[in-house]
Amino acid sequence: MKKLTLFILVMIIAAMILTGCGAQDAAGEKISSPASQNEQSSSSAESLPAESETPPPSQEPLTPIYGNQIQDGTYKIEVSSSSSMFRIIDAQLTVANAEMSAVLTLSGTGYEKLYMGTGEEALADSQDKYIYFVEDSEGKYTYQVPVDALDQEIDCAAWSIRKEKWYDRTLVFHSSLLPSEAISSAAPAALPTQGEYQIQVSLSGGTGRAEVASPAKLTVAADGAATATIVWSSPYYENMTVSGISYSPVSMGENSTFEIPVVLDTDMAVSATTIAMSEPHEIDYTLYFDTATMKPLE
Asked: Where is the signal peptide (predicted)?
């Protein structure tokens, strides 16, 4: 009987000890309240980029690649955009005579036209500089745009059909998909700094009767893009085409005058439409701008 009583007491004491340890463990364990669980979920969500957001651009400096460094041809390239609302699903780059243009296919059909520049610049410019969509066989909107350089941020404004306003985008035309043999290893000539210059320009092609004024005025923007003022010896030129983009004259007096983007120290293919004959004729020409003759415009 005494042994039984002693055994029962031992069991009771053991049970009490085990219960105390369990309570201490339970008290020491951190239990997440609904509020703290929400905080953890929120923190995890913030660490992941939202699906609709565009990843931030690389902070590594890019070295621009220009048309005179790439062999003539058509290449598939990637184009990144600063906005997920302006997603480019296909881009075909064409290089011809050191000039580049690209046909961009967008994922949606919300933009009527593009402008290579900012929305503010688009509002101040003439409508002939707007690039309207062309619908492809699948109903996608495509746009043929001039490309100043690859691996360089380029301003582009897009006109929303629904909102009826310009939206600013920043595009980068990447060279990563180009075949290595298509890119020249030679370093490009140093670009002139921002400002206005005069430069000797030569014209070849056509019938040989037309001339352009030389020296011509050359304007270099902060990003290195060069624009030349072309003054023809005839008043009958109604447009010029450069890299597939048509440009209207800025004045039509005794001489047809145009402002067009140009490349330097390279034979540059252009065309011009004349109405001097019974019907309009498009004539192919070659321009050459010699940087050795450049002088600041006074």
From this structure: 1-26
Residue 47 lies in a domain: no
How many Å apart are CA 72 and CA 85, to the nearest integer?
32
Q: What is the domain range of residue 166? A: 67-182
The confidence score (pLDDT) of residue 7 equals: 61
pLDDT digits 0-9 by tens, 142-188:
999 999 889 999 999 999 999 999 999 999 999 999 999 998 765 55
Tell me if 220 is assigned to some domain.
yes
pLDDT, tens only, 209-250: 889 999 999 999 887 889 999 999 999 999 999 988 889 999
Could you give the CA distance from residue 216 to residue 201 in angstroms, rounded to a whole number? Answer: 7
Indicate if 73 and 175 belong to the same structural domain: yes
Residue 23 within a domain: no
The pLDDT of residue 58: 46
Same domain, 178 and 243: no
List Cβ neighbours of 106 (8 Å cut-off, separation of 6 or more): 86, 87, 88, 89, 140, 141, 142, 143
> DSSP letter string over 191-234?
PPPSEEEEEEEEEEETTS---B-SSEEEEE-TTS-EEEEEEBS-
pTM over 0.70: no
- Does the pLDDT value for residue 6 go beyond 60? no
- The answer to whether position 60 is within a domain reads no
